[in-house]
Protein: Redox-sensing transcriptional repressor Rex
Organism: Pseudolactococcus laudensis
Amino acid sequence: MVVTKFNEVLPKATAKRLPQYYRIFKQFVADKVDRTNSQAIAAKLGVDSATVRRDFSLFGELGRRGYGYDTTALRDFFGNLLGDSAETNIALVGVGNLGRALINYRFHDRNKMRITQAYDVAGNPLVGTKTDDGIPIYNISDIQKNLADANIETAIISVQSDRAQEVADLLIAAGIKGILNFTPRRLQVPENITVQSVDLTSELQTLLFFMQDKKETENKL
């Protein structure tokens, strides 16, 4: 659990922005920008500069008055904070349309994360094969046996909602500690298990809401 310099739990809103800060500073370094300020960071993130300064203040003195922020130092700081200094192997359960898209997504080109195993039920014709990148697709009945000797603590669930809890239980029994859940099902897990849910329908509905809200605002002007 990440705590702030005030010995408090990091706010969820700030925690969700950490990967964005990391991506921004990696791009600054790639573009050979040596230092920056909160206004430039805020412009890339789509928030106000006060939010950036407030987030950064939770970790102590990340910048210097009159100088700004050292981009290389901040890239390394957020990389270490997010655990990007080590390889992260991931198991994927559910090799349907979304699952295949996730397998083909180049996590490793952007961060030190990669899907190394995939699982589905025996009826899926892909079970027993490998992807073009050599990722094996196993029968879900083999999940506990395969994960026992693998360096995998993270998994992605991309199955039908009514199977999500069953799959989560299997993963936890196999030693998984973190789950990225791509179903709208709210998972019941022990306190020592971390779950991050991505409900694509809700995200799209939120997008449409903000689009409509902008239209109504513009029409009033």
Notes: The CA atoms of residues 146 and 174 lie 9 Å apart. Residues 200-220 form the longest helix (21 residues).
